[in-house]
Amino acid sequence: MAKKIEHIINGVEIMPEMFKAFELWSDPTTHYTIAQIAERVGRHWRTVSVWRQTEWWHELAEQYIRTSRRRLETRFAALEEKIMQAAHDILDGKNKETNKMANAQVALITNYLKAGKDPIIDLRPNVQIDARTQIVNNNVTITPEMINSLPPGAIREYHRTGVLPKELK
C-alpha cells in the first residue's frame, strides 16, 4: 500500500498524521500537550516533539502566523467605521456608557493605528543609510565628514555601543 502524502513543505513529504499534529498544536481553541497531540495522531510523544524541531514545522508555523496576522488586519479594517465612531464619541463625550469604556476604546484605537504592514503609528526603528548621509530616529543628520572629524575613541565607542557620541548630539 502506498503512503498518503498530505503536503510537501521544503522538500519534505508531510504525512496526514504530521499535518494533523500541527493543526492540533496551532488550534487556538485547544490547549493540548505534546503527549495529547501524539495520542490523537497515533504517534509517540517524542516523535511529535522531534517534528516540532524540524524545518517544515517552523515553515508551517511562520505561514500560520502570517495568515493569522493578515486575518487580524482584515478584521480591524472591517471595524474602521465603528472604531472611528468610538473615537468621536470619546472626544464628544456623547454618552455615559462610552465614557465608562473610554480607556478600553482608546487602547483599541491605538492598537488599530499600530496594526498592519504600514501602520499609521509606526514603532519600528527608522534608520535610512545611503552613501552620503545617515538619518537616525532623533532626526540628527550624520554626514561622513562629521564622522571623520570624530576622535578615534569616539568612533570605536559608537561602534561598540551604538550610542551617538556627544559631539554629534
Describe the structure.
Helices cover 57% and strands 7% of the residues. By secondary structure, the protein is mainly alpha-helical. The chain folds into three domains: 7-73; 79-114, no CATH class; 128-168, no CATH class. The protein has a three-stranded antiparallel beta sheet with strand order 3-4-5. A two-stranded antiparallel ribbon has the order 1-2.
Number of strands: 5
The low-pLDDT segments are 131-135
Into which percent range does the helicity of residues fall? 55-70%
What pattern of helices and strands is seen along the backbone? EEHHHHHHHEEEHH
The geometry reads as flat
Question: What's the short story on this structure?
Answer:
The protein has 169 residues and is mainly α. The chain contains nine helices and five strands.
Set out the fold topology:
Elements: E1 7-9, E2 12-14, H1 16-26, H2 34-41, H3 45-52, H4 55-78, H5 80-92, H6 96-100, H7 102-114, E3 128-129, E4 134-135, E5 141-142, H8 144-148, H9 152-161
Helix pairs in contact: 1-2, 2-3, 5-7
